[in-house]
Structure formats: C-alpha cells, structure tokens
Amino acid sequence: MRRILFAVLLLAMTRTLTAQTLTPPKAITDPKQIRAQTREFVQAFTIDMLYMTRSIGGTAWSPDGRQIAFISNLSGRNNLWLVGAAGGWPTQLTVSDQRQAAPAWSPNGKYIAYMSDHDGNEQWDIFLVSPENGKIYNMTNTPEIAEESPVWSPDSRFLAYQVKPKDSPTYEIDVMNVTLRNVRHITSGTPKDLGNFGPIWSRDGKWIAYTQQNAAGKDSNIFLAEVESGKSVNLTAHTGEQSYSAADFSPDGKRLLITSNAANGYDNVGLLEIATKKITWLTKDKWEIAAGNFSPDGRKVTFTANVDGDTEVFVHDLATRKTAALPLAAGVNSLGGAESAFSRDGRELLFYHNGATAPSDAWVYSFASGKARQVTHALVGGLSPKDMVEPFLVHFPSRDGKWQISAFVYVPYNARRTLENAGVVYIHGGPTAQSVNSFNRTIQYLVNQGYFVIAPNYRGSTGYGKEFQDANLHDMGGGDLQDVLAAADFLQQTGFMDPKKMAVMGGSYGGYMTMMAVTKAPEQWAAGVAIVPFVNWFTEIEHEDPLLQQYDRATMGDPVKDKALFEERSPIHFVDRIKAPLLLLAGGNDPRCPKEEAQQVAEAVQKLGGVAELKIYENEGHGFARVPNQIDAYSRVGEFLKKYVKPADCGCTLK
Q1: Is residue 543 in a domain?
Q2: Helical (H) or strand (E) element with 484
Q3: Inside any domain, residue 591
Q4: I want to staple 76 with a disulfide (CB 3.0 to 4.6 A). Which of 26, 36, 260, 627 is the partner?
Q5: Cβ atoms 160, 174 nearer than 8 A
Q6: For residues 513 and 483, what is the distance between their CA atoms, to the nearest angstrom?
C-alpha cells in the first residue's frame, strides 16, 4: 500500500531532469524595480534576540527510526541532543564547553560517534557517547592530529574517518576497530597536493569508496578500496580538470551514486557502474545538482538542485526514470542524516529547511502522506517571521561585461525612496561559497535597523558552474572585487541610497574582500567590517594550516614567483589609502586566517591616525561558535555601523 501511495505521489509531481529543465526564480535586472514592502507595525530586533534563535547542525537517524540525534547550541554551545522522530521536546545528551559536529549513530544502536575540537582549533578528535546513559569515550585523543567525519561500518565494529596531522596538508582515510582501538590505513603516502575525503562503506562492509581531490578543489576522482587489503582502484580516471565525488553505494554494491561536472561543466548526478566504470547520467542541467542516497531497497535515489540560491529536494525512480520534487517551502532544502537521509525502512526522509525568515530546522518527510513535519524548532527568542524580510533576487552585469552576477537584495519595511538610506554590501566567504536564500541573523538585524543589504555572488562563487567558479583563479582581489563594487553600484541605482552611506562587510575571504574594497576603492565606503579576515598573502600563507597553504598556492600562485601579484593584492600594503573607519574581529585559535592578520591591519591604521577597532576572541577559531561571543561580536558590528553609517528613519520598527 505504501508503495502504491508513493507511486501516486510521483505521478502527481514528476518531471525528468535529463536536460536543462530546472526553472530559476525570476530575477530583477532593473534597480528601479526594487520596492519596499509596507507593514504597519514592525518589531524592533536586538542581536540578543536573533542569536537566541538556535542553530541546528548535523543529524542522524536512530536505527529503529524513532529518534533523531542532532547538533544544536540550545545550551549556548554546539552539543549533541536527541529528539523523537515525531517531534517533541529534545533532551541534551552531551554537555561540553567545546563544540561538537558530525553525529553518526551505530547500526546496532549502542553508540553515537561525533567529533569535537578545542576552542575552535580544528584539531578534531572522535568521540563515542552512549544514547542510553550518556557515557563518553574519546577514541582518538590526539592533540596534534585531526580525525574527522566518522562513518560506521554496517556491522558497527569499525569507524572510517578522515585524518590529518597538524603539520601535514594531506587528509588520509583510516579505519578503527572500535573495540580494540587499533587502526588500519586505507590510504597513506598521498602526495601533498592531494587529499582523501568522504569515506562510504558498502553494505557488506568489504569496500570503502572515497573521493580524492587536488589542492585547488578543481579536480577529483572516486576510488574504491578493499578494506581487508587496503588496495585502491581509481574508478574515474580522466584527462583535464573534472570533479567526481561519491555519495552512496547501491544496496547490491554494484553502483555508486555520484556528483560530477564531467558531463557539461556543471555538477550533475550519475550512476557509476563499478565493474565497467561507466556513468549513466540522471541529470544534465546547467545548475548545481548534488547526489544524495539510494533508498534502502535500491529503487530510488535522492538529490538536491541549487537553482540561483534556492534548493529543492528530488526523488528519482530508477525503474520509471521519473523524478519528483518534494513539495517543500521555498528556500534552501537539503538532505539530513549521517549514512542516509532515508529512515531504515525507507518510509521517511530526513531533511533541513532553511529560508530567509526561517532558520535551519530538521524536518521529516513522509512518503505515505506526502507531507513534512517539523522536528526541531530553532526560532525562539520572541521573534516573528512576519517582521523579517524576504530578499529580491537580482541580476546585473559585471563591470567588464564578462559575467552575469546574481545577488540578493534585502529592503527594510516602509523605506522611502529619498536618497537618504544607508546600505551594506555583505560579502560571503570562501571564495568557493554562495549567498543563498537562507536565514542570516546579521542581515535580518541590519535590515530591521533600517539598512539596505546586497549579498552578491561574485565570480569564483559556487552555484553557477565550473567556468564561473574558476573565473577568479590567480586573480583573487581582482575581477571578483569589481563584481562587489558592481553590487554597490546596483544598490545605489535603486534610488534609495545616500552614496555617502555605504558600508562593506564580510567574513573570511569576505573579510579579505572587505579590506580590498576599502583600500582599492576608498572613496566609496563610509565604514568597513572585516570578520576573521586575512590581509597579507605572504603572512597568510606563512602562518595558515598546511592544507590551506596548498590551496592558496594552487589558486593564487607562488609567493616568490608571483611576488608582484601578491603585493598588489595584499591590502596591508595600501592601508594609507583607507578613509573609512574599520572594525576587525578575529579568533585567537584560527588556523585559517590567524589573528595576526587582523592585528597587523589595526596597528598599521592606528599608526596613521585612522580608526581601527579590534576585538580578538581568544577561545574561538575561524568564526564564533559560542553564543555569548556571537552576541558580543555582532552587537559590536551593529553599534559600529550605527555610529559611522547611520540609517535613515524609515519607520521600519515600532517605536
């Protein structure tokens, strides 16, 4: 009966994705079409309220499908919690001052594996916790080695995971016998410009598939390793740059569900026959599509499609070749679970929903009813989604005319088109990342206070194919900066903005771009906020994690051979041009953008008599995981912007 109901549901919603058929949301190209919505009473937000809205992290089904383990900062720290699959009040399983991630429930139900580091240093250890009594075991306990992303063998005897010594640029794959704690190397001696990721067990436990990727993240292969012998075979040997990554084994062990851009330069989903090494493509679209899982019976597969910042979940029937989009709310919908988003009986699917006015939560979709139910509830703190704003999707040409740039524009309620408003260009990090139609606490706060915000996807961003993503290679801080400046142009062309009230802000690579903006286009900005930035290519490569050193060399160049480029693209060399006051926030244990990067900027600007406020959170890493630190950091951001870039009184909050 359930199978019949599922077939009816498929027929009601089918569309085949073997060609370019995904329809993007309509984008605005004329800045004058940007409008403010009217709302009589709008609640005034505070940073405290927004950051009391909780974060929901990784999830895992219990073997019997009755419970879901999830990571959340409900207690102010990212710890492990349990909730009934039907919903209800969650219970805290682990209590720690350190953050935790990547939960995976053993098939026999006895333990949940997870990883945890110390004060954000990314030197992860793998732990086990009993869901019955909460007893915790540190399985690795290696302060100078990171062990990450544990995955259980089907018989619950072994854990496969990624491992990287602190002084190494390379991830290897290891397998640990959980009882004896002895370790077997699945990979070893991998060249420093390659890394191994994402181990996946076959259902019989004899094989592990994994992905080997180059340092630039532009080329990768899928390998199949025999666990007993440790011998690996490359299943996707190719010429040129192409990416292949494994997502799941078929239940019979004959096929792999994969994501690859080999078909047309965009990520698509295929079935890789292990015996023949041939790929059957399930999609060939020109958006970014990511593989999910096989259903437990092997008859269906899941995948997600990111279409200009909105993501849908699809189920594909392998026999009928029909594809159904699950009827979910617009925004970013992504698959949950550890080894699979499917419950073990295949009746339900665990996923996350995240929207502009709805923070990420875990949901469960029932194939029998065709409906989804919310399992976690992140939106607390007295906030109403009705007082938040939905963004406009906009497109505009790059300044050099080579690219169409996509961005999201957020407009305060009741704003008047008077050339008196203040704006913020909000730059995502990465650069291989994307601003999407999801919940952003900082942006919602700024818009609530009266700021217009534009979040551009500059060249180098993910989501728009290989050619666009590669467009800033060896040109970081060049063409991508011009795209950011074009975003500021678009915002000003709406007719709302005071050109003297523009601020720029971002984190990580977005922090670097913020510093490039205030040094290369100093007249344009009234303030800059750089969060965990880097500012000097030479010192960044010298002090960052060895893996990131390899990445930066592959994507930007060599500090000696490309010295002139490194100097020209290092904001530290141009601090004398800065006119805008700066706020710099950093983490004391950041292995990616060490605190010395922010410190050297603050010292240089202050010596020149400029304004550079600096705050270092000594118990944080790359970004801020502790709620009190988040509240402090973004309260500083709000106060700083109001001081130097005062928004117009748009009547957007209830006085």
Answers
A1: yes
A2: helix 479-492
A3: yes
A4: 627
A5: yes
A6: 11
- Taking alpha carbons only, the member of 380, 377, 383 closest to residue 70 is 377
Q: Which residues pair with 493 in a beta bridge?
A: none
Q: What is the sign of the dihedral through the CA atoms of 482, 522, 429 and 442?
A: negative
- Dihedrals φ, ψ of 603, to 5°? -65, -45
> Left (φ > 0), alpha (ψ -120 to 50) or beta: where does 270 sit?
beta
Looking at residue 426, which CATH number applies to its domain? 3.40.50.1820
Q: pLDDT tens digits for 286-325?
A: 999 999 999 999 999 999 999 999 999 999 999 999 999 9
pLDDT tens digits, residue range 31-90? 999 999 999 999 999 999 999 899 999 999 999 999 999 999 999 999 999 999 999 999
**Sequence-ordered list of residues with C-beta below 8 angstroms from that of 629, at least 6 positions apart, any chain:** 617, 619, 620
Q: Which residue has the tokens 């098939």?
A: 107
Domain hosting residue 581, numbered range? 388-644
Q: Bridge partners of 529?
A: 505, 583
Domain count, the chain: 1
Q: Work out the mean pLDDT of the chain and round it to a whole number.
A: 94
Judge if pTM exceeds 0.90: yes
Asked if 513 and 568 touch (Cβ cutoff 8 Å), the reply is: no
Cβ neighbours around 302 below 10 Å, total: 25
**97 occurs within a structural domain:** no
